[in-house]
Amino acid sequence: MHPQIKKRMSFSSFGLAPNLLQALTEMNYERPYPIQEIAIPAILTGKDVLGIAPTGSGKTASYVLPILTQLSKAEKAKNRHIQSLILVPTRELAIQVEEVFKTFAHTFSEPLKVKAVYGGVSINPQMKAMMGVSILIATPGRLIELAESNAVHLTLVKSVVLDEADKLLNLGFQEEMQQIIKLLPKKRQNLLFSATLNDQVSEINQILLHDPIVLKIENEEDSVDLIQQTAFRVSDARKGPLLRYLIRERKMKQVLIFTSSTFKADQVVDKLRKNNIDAQAIHSKKSQDARNKVLRNFKAGHLKVLVATDLISRGIDIEFLPFVINYELPRSPKDYVHRIGRTGRAESTGEALTFVTPEDEHHFKIIQKKMGKQVPFEETDELNLNGY
Ligand code: AMP
Questions:
Q1: N or C: which end of the chain has fewer CB within 10 A?
Q2: Atom number in ligand 1 closest to CA 319
C-alpha cells in the first residue's frame, strides 16, 4: 500500500503535457485529488496500477491525463491499431469517459483520435470510424465483435484500463474479458480501477497486473458523512403526493429519483408530468439514443427530475447533484450507498431523502446497519398533502 500523502501537490509537479496543465486551470481543477496524486506519476512511469476508488473520486482524470501525455509523445496510431484501450461495463460510462478524453485531447496541436463503442446501436458506423483511432473506450461485447471483424486491432496496445472493474466482472463479462486479454500484446501497461476489492477483482489483479502500485481511496461508505440523509415514514398511497410536495416545497431544481423497477419509474414520471412537473425516466427499456438525450438534458439542467433504476445509476457522473430521493428502497445496502453517493461527491455536499413504508422498516434497518449510520426519521402522517 502506498504511504499516505499528507500535503497536496500541484498538477505541474507531475510532468504532464503543458497544454493539459493549461486546460486544467481553465476547468478550475485547482489541485489533484488524492487518487490523482498517486496514480498520475505512477502511470507516467509506466507502472501498473490497482486503484480502489469510488466514482466521484476523480479516477477518470487520474488515467486520462497520463495516458494522453504518454501517447502525445509516441508515434501516431497506424490504420486500425489502437494504442490505449479503456474497458467499461456500460454505455453510459463509455460516453462519459469519451467526453473526458475528448475535452483534454482537443488541447493538443495534433489531437489524438478518441472513440467510444458500445452495443445497442448499429455496428457499421463504429467500424467505419475506427480508422486512426488512438484511444478506444469500449464495452467488452462490442469490442470483441469489432476485433473479430478486423475493424480494430489490439496487438499494438500500450495501455489497458479496466474502469469499474468490479462491475465489469460482476456483470458476467468474465469470459469476454479472457477473450480480450488474449488479443492484447504481452507487454503492456495495465490499469485497473474498482469501487470495491472483491474476490473477482483480486483474481483479475493477479492475472493481469505486474507488481502494481496499489492505492485505496476512501470508500463511498466513508464519504456518506458528506451527505445529509433523511428518511420519511410514509404509506404507499401517500408517496406520490409526498414526492410532489418535497419537489415543490424544497424548490428542487435538479433531483434524481430511484425506483426499483422500470415499470415504477415510468409510473412516477407519468404522475409527475400530470402534475406539471417536468420529468423523464432512464432505464434499460429505453433506447440508447433516448437514454443519452435524457442524461444530457438532465446534466445541462434543462430537465428537472430524472427517475432511474439501479442498473443505470452507477457510473453516471453528475456534478453537484443536490438531491437524491429513494422513492423505493433498493434490495442491496450497497446499491443504497451507490444511489446516495450521487450527491455529496468530490468535495460538495448534498441531500438524500428516503421514503420508508411500514413494510420497508425492517429492510431499512439492515441498510442502516450495513452503512454504519443511523438516518434520522421525519414523520409525515400529520403533513397536509392536499393539493399535491
Ligand atoms: P470521477 O471520479 O472521475 O467521475 O470524477 C468526479 C468529478 O470530479 C468529475 O466531475 C470531475 O470533473 C471532477 N474532478 C476530477 N478531478 C478533479 C480535480 N482535481 N479538481 C476538481 N474537479 C475534479
A1: N
A2: 10
pTM of the model: 0.63
Q: Where are the beta strands (DSSP E) in the chain?
A: 49-52, 84-87, 114-117, 135-138, 159-162, 189-194, 213-216, 227-233, 255-258, 279-282, 305-308, 323-326, 350-356, 377-379
The residue written with cell numbers 473520486 in the block is 57
The CA 131 to ligand 1 mean position distance, Å, reads 30
What are 233's strand-pairing partners? 356, 379
Name the residue among 385, 384, 271 with its Cα closest to residue 327. 271
How many residues are given for the chain? Answer: 388
Rounded Cα gap, residues 263 and 69, in angstroms:
46
pLDDT in tens, 146-195: 999 999 999 999 999 999 998 888 777 888 998 999 999 999 999 999 98
Does 227-379 match 11-216 at the fold level?
yes
Q: How many CA atoms lie within 13 A of 250 on its CB side?
A: 18
Strands 377-379 and 227-233: what pairing?
A: parallel
Share of the chain above pLDDT 70, in %: 92
Write down the H helix ranges in 173-306. 174-183, 199-208, 220-223, 239-249, 262-274, 288-299
Distance CA 50, CA 307 (A): 33
Domain ranges of the chain: 11-216, 227-379
**Smallest CA separation from ligand 1 atom 18, residue:** 29
CB of 318 within 6 A of ligand 1: the answer is no
Fold of 11-216: Rossmann fold (3.40.50)
Fold topology of 227-379: Rossmann fold (3.40.50)
**CB of residue 317 inside a 6 A radius of ligand 1:** yes
Cα 128–chain centre separation:
28
- CA–CA gap between residue 292 and residue 54 (Å, rounded): 23
What three-state secondary structure class fits 382?
Answer: coil
